[in-house]
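Quick one:
INPUT:
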């Protein structure tokens, strides 16, 4: 249910200048998104319905531990504490792009969610 809703809202998040990633594992679902060139009020207006949807799934056993937006005055102010110049080096992560059409997302969000859920282990969306 939660994953299907998350897939369903991707076009509206994209339209509202959100980008980022979600990490799905057997016991957690973590979202890390940035909303570029929008106010916190605009970001909240876009993402809060999803947060409320998730919070309403507690009867299904979902535990929402954190759902919030945090404003930053610029991408630089967000980026520099997380990736300081003194921390040069690499890591073992792999970047990719998902080429799922908007039409597929808009008309088959449940099918996409089912396919993601069928993958064994963690998934990054």
């Amino acid at each position: 249910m939660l994953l299907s809703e998350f897939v369903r809202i991707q076009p509206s998040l994209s339209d509202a200048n959100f980008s980022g990633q979600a990490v799905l594992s057997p016991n957690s679902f973590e979202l890390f998104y940035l909303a570029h060139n929008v106010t916190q009020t605009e970001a909240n207006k876009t993402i809060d319905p999803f947060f409320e949807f998730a919070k309403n799934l507690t009867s299904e056993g979902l535990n929402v531990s954190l759902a919030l937006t945090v404003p930053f005055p610029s991408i630089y102010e967000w980026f520099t504490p997380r990736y300081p110049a003194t921390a040069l080096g690499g890591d073992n992560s792999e970047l990719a792009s998902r080429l799922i059409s908007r039409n597929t997302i808009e008309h088959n969000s449940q099918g996409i969610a089912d396919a993601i859920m069928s993958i064994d282990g963690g998934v990054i969306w």
